[in-house]
Design a protein that fits this description.
Length: 210
């Protein structure tokens, strides 16, 4: 896309940054795409390390403001484009729960899944950032069972994050395919903007593979 509105999106297809691609499509936000080829090791080259010394995607430049960390990017973009209505505003009673579920992903869910994937014994309850895997999963599944979205009837940027994450974690058998989880992923993936982002991501991955 063209250099409009000053947003540059550093993305690897497919990867954790695929959720940001879906969010940008949902927001209708103009952006410039910068592909980072992970298989070619571009994330460890000086050009990209100057953007993110961690060598990870996603990252965005909004003008000259750099934002890394997936959850921070979601918060920033959803607030940046309020006309899309994907972020409860300050003062909205759903603002706190919205931030809770965004933070829960990064602070509890992903560490729990990574420990499970690596077959690592979790730290003691006093030291673990998430407590234990079963409670973490039950907390998410319980919220989804109330549905249809993380905030009940209101769809938000948090759903783009969670549906993307639950889609890949269930596909890799890191998270069980519970009915409430699979119905939720299917519900979000059926949204036109999310489906368009998935198609775009597949085409980008194919172009790099070629």
């Amino acid at each position: 896309m063209g250099e409009t509105n000053g947003i540059t999106f550093f993305h690897a297809a497919p990867s954790r940054s695929s959720g940001v691609l879906a969010l940008l499509e949902e927001l209708g936000a103009p952006y410039t795409l910068r592909l980072v080829n992970l298989k070619a090791g571009e994330q460890r080259k000086p050009e990209y390390l100057a953007v993110n010394p961690m060598g990870k995607v996603p990252a965005i430049l909004d003008g000259d403001s750099l934002v890394t960390e997936q959850v921070a990017i979601f918060i920033h973009l959803a607030d940046r484009f309020p006309q899309a209505g994907l972020a409860p505003a300050l003062g909205d009673k759903l603002r706190g729960p919205y931030l809770r579920w965004l933070a829960f992903y990064g602070s509890s869910f992903e560490p729990a899944v990574v420990d499970r994937a690596q077959q690592r014994a979790p730290a003691s309850l006093a030291m673990s950032p998430y407590g234990d895997f079963d409670t973490t999963l039950a907390t998410v599944a319980g919220q989804l069972a109330r549905g249809p979205y993380m905030l009940g009837e209101r769809f938000s940027a948090a759903d783009v994050l969670w549906a993307t994450a639950l889609g890949w974690t269930t596909s890799f058998k890191l998270v069980p395919e519970l009915p409430e989880i699979m119905a939720y992923v299917e519900r979000v993936n059926a949204r036109p903007a999310v489906a368009a982002a998935k198609a775009k991501d597949a085409a980008l991955a194919a172009s790099q593979a070629g």
